[in-house]
Amino acid sequence: MGKTLSGMSLEELWELFPIILKEHNPAYKEWYLIEKDKIVNTVGRNDIKRINHIGSSSIEGLISKPTVDILLEVDCNCDIEKLQSKLNNAGWTLMSFESKPDINISFNKGYTLNGFAEKVFHFHVRFWGDWNELYFRDYLLVHKEVAKEYGKLKQGLKEQYEYNRDRYTKAKTEFIMKYTKIARKDFGNRYAPKL
What angle do helix axes 144-161 and 165-187 make, rounded to 10 degrees? Predict the structure, then answer.
């Protein structure tokens, strides 16, 4: 029997799925909207508090991995096991599950034994909150010069870490946190849950 993705080492996965950066694809927004509708139909509206297109593919003009990142925020009373089961049945693959200090579950779609599919999604599930990704996205949407700087940083890091996704991601963290902090100051508590 052949190897499965779950049976591969990190190094094998990184070789099969290297860091790829492409110019912004206007279709990303449509991909997000279609997938958002599928997610809402799969999960049901009752537990959904908010759903957003995040990550570089949500920023027009920004170079990005050809991946649509989606953040789903659910009610704190949501049955996480039931939610996970629904998503697995809908074709989402569980990548990571953290429950402390808060729920942070990652799924993906579009990873195959032959490499990336035509459409690739990363899907993050969290309890309704005040998440950094939303502030960073909004800051880049407003500050095109910072988005351009971020694109240059990513291109340089891709050259260094093409086959090491963890290091690539970690190397971006300082930049992301710097501008997220500024965004939180500029935007106030725009995403804080209003009870």
Answer: 160
